[in-house]
Amino acid sequence: MFGAGSAGAVVANRLSKKYRVLLLEAGGEPNPLQYIPGFGVFFVNYPETDWMHKTVPQKYASLNSVNQQSSWSAGRGLGGTGTLNLMIYLRGHKKDFDNWGRITGDPSWSWEGVLPYFKSYEDYEEDGDPRYHGFGGDLRVEQPDYIGMGPEFVRAGQELGYSHCDLNAPFTEGFDIIKFPIKDGIRQGTYKAFLEPIRRLRAKLVIRKYAHVNRVLFKHGNIAFGLEYDRHGVTRQAFASKEVIISAGTVNSAKLLMLSGIGPRAHLQEQGIPVYADLPVGQNLQDHIGAYMGPFFIDKPRAVALERDLTPSAFVQWFLGGKGILSTTGLHATGIISSSLAKARGEGDWPDIQYFLYGFSVFKTFGAAFARGFGLTADEQNKFYEHAIDKESFLVAVSGARPFSRGFVKLGGKSPYDKPVIDPRYFTDPGDQDLYSMVEGIKTLLYLTQNTTALGHELGTRYTTQPLPGCEHLRFQSDEYWECYARRYTVTLHHPVGTASMGSVVDTQLRVYGTQGLRVIDSSVAPVLVVTNTQASAIMIGEKGSDMVLKYWEEQKKKQSQYGAPQPQQYGPLEPSQSNGVPTVPDSTQQYGVPDSSSYSASSWLQPATTYSIASLNSTKSGYSVPGYYSYNTVK
Ligand SMILES: Cc1cc2nc3c(=O)[nH]c(=O)nc-3n(C[C@H](O)[C@H](O)[C@H](O)COP(=O)(O)OP(=O)(O)OC[C@H]3O[C@@H](n4cnc5c(N)ncnc54)[C@H](O)[C@@H]3O)c2cc1C
């Protein structure tokens, strides 16, 4: 398998309890500073830790970004995007998963079906409701020590009639303090929680860092039997006797499928790639965009001011007990509400706007830092934020939480190192519902911040009078101004999903249609974006996907013993003396002869599981069986 990210790390952990797993990851170890929640985001846009994707120039959104291109970060290294993300822990709305169940026709993906998988990996903070939360699992989730002006934000929401509730349990609309995957103030990405504790103890798991996978290897048209990857300047192959699993994230999983010949026929032919399965890979791309609102000035020192608060004692506080301002990523509270558009569609109980409170004031280099992190034009950012430097203030991001716009990922070339073409097509939905719900979200936020007792009266919150560069010609705060604002100052919230959707590219067991032995297990399989942030759902997909793999092979084993079919290979532990613990075979082409054609079916993933044959992956006409769970050799 490849991709040690939010989903992949979980898969590697679960499968290696029982089977041998080779986990290939393009990046390296997390930087120790990434474990400090307050520092994680500083690793965005560095090639060692970030794939640094860029979208094509957007016509209707992100207009203040350099070249109108949205800057899409994606973590590179053990733990994947979970090592550089903003750590908000939210699963999604109950209705999101019920919708998945409906779309896929498989109730196991509805809320009731996925809930046990969320619970099974969680070690939720003590006051979590046991009906909805897991305790004692691998991933600690809790409220950080420092929550800044989060309580005021939640109270303001309550004043407008929204409940203060657990947004990880079933809810309609509500506000809450943000929970993080942290333990004692230390970031718990999926590397820290699922790989670090086992990587040196579990013989069945072999991790290869700096292994850039180029393509899936197929034999006889559609049987996935291995991966080709580059490591330290050498191209190698790894072979699987059971399955190949792709967990490279929404952009790279789609890219790798297409490079391997799984994708839209016309596009692959255009690139000169032989087509193994004609599937809509890369289509159905969805992402959240957010408009960053602020600065909101306040009269009391309730927000973090870096120049004032990031003192040596803040570091001491974190190092000694994981406490203080460094125990958070700066995001303190969230609110999830329904717009009048959602209500008019009869979906008032399925919210479409999310707020994120950034409880810190504008510091001297804020404009430049924001510009760098989000690919915005530095001059415009500096100009816009200059008036707020050193004044007590905060920001709020408004997310269009249920976008209707759909985009795509395509190949930018045939080489694995060619950059993918990413077009999220923000604000292109017919009827402009995405734009209008965001404008409404902005206007509701202005009311919430300035007209409530908690924020407006007690903190004296007032929105800036500085117009946004590019919208100065419009009447300040008119609807036209906010439309302009939403189009210009929209940045990705980094939640892409959907490029290998269940129901169109993979089945509900996450097996790639029209192939054998190939699954995708990561956020790309989500058919529709959840309302909230996406890491928790990616982890759940990893947990549920692993369970499917384990159950599948357990079932195969039972069938074989029942019907007297050949037993799957029983592999003993790896012999450490063999090539660093990895058994090698001299030449892949000699090892894989032509399998007995009766032993596999070209569309076996589409057929009932009984037609799937282990023998087709393990044995050849000459009776050769792969001598280990996987093996690798060097391509000359
Ligand atoms: C800046 C930022 C902030 C975010 N903030 C939040 C947040 O606060 N809360 C939240 O819930 N979500 C957040 N997200 C989103 C969330 O982190 C992702 O949705 C989630 O981590 C995706 O998980 P995944 O397993 O699909 O992919 P990833 O975690 O991206 O894992 C993919 C892995 O595959 C590896 N890989 C890719 N290609 C190859 C290849 N060719 N060969 C070998 N390995 C490869 C990558 O290096 C990576 O390790 C944020 C994302 C970003 C970028």
CATH class of the domain at 56-86 and 140-184 and 286-492: Alpha Beta
On the 0 to 100 scale, the average pLDDT is 88
- At the fourth CATH level, what is the homologous superfamily of the domain at 56-86 and 140-184 and 286-492? Glucose Oxidase, domain 3
Helical coverage, percent range: 25-40%
- Major sheet: 8 strands, mixed
Quantity of strands, as a count: 26
> Low-confidence spans: pLDDT under 50, at least 5 residues?
566-636
CATH topology of the domain at 56-86 and 140-184 and 286-492: Glucose Oxidase, domain 3
How many helical stretches?
18
Beta fraction of the residues? 15-25%
Each distinct ligand = flavin-adenine dinucleotide
Distance between the termini: 23 Å
Oligomer: single chain
Q: In the CATH classification, which architecture of the domain at 56-86 and 140-184 and 286-492 applies?
A: 2-Layer Sandwich
Protein structure class: alpha+beta
Shape: globular
Work out the radius of gyration. Answer: 25 Å
Task: Describe this protein's structure.
The chain has 18 helices and 26 strands. The model is unreliable at 566-636 (pLDDT under 50). It has 636 residues and is of the alpha+beta class. 27% of the residues lie in helices and 17% in strands. The relative contact order is 0.17. The chain is globular, with a radius of gyration of 25 Å. The strands form nine sheets. Strands 6, 7, 17, 18, 19, 20, 23 and 24 form an eight-stranded mixed beta sheet that branches. Strands 11-12-13-26 form a four-stranded antiparallel beta sheet. It has a domain at 56-86 and 140-184 and 286-492: 2-Layer Sandwich (Glucose Oxidase, domain 3). Bound molecules: flavin-adenine dinucleotide. Flavin-adenine dinucleotide is lined by residues 2-8, 24-27, 44, 73-77, 80-82, 84-88, 211-213, 247-250, 252, 256, 494-495, 522-523, 533-536, 538. Its cofactor is FAD. Belongs to the GMC oxidoreductase family. This is Glucose dehydrogenase [FAD, quinone].
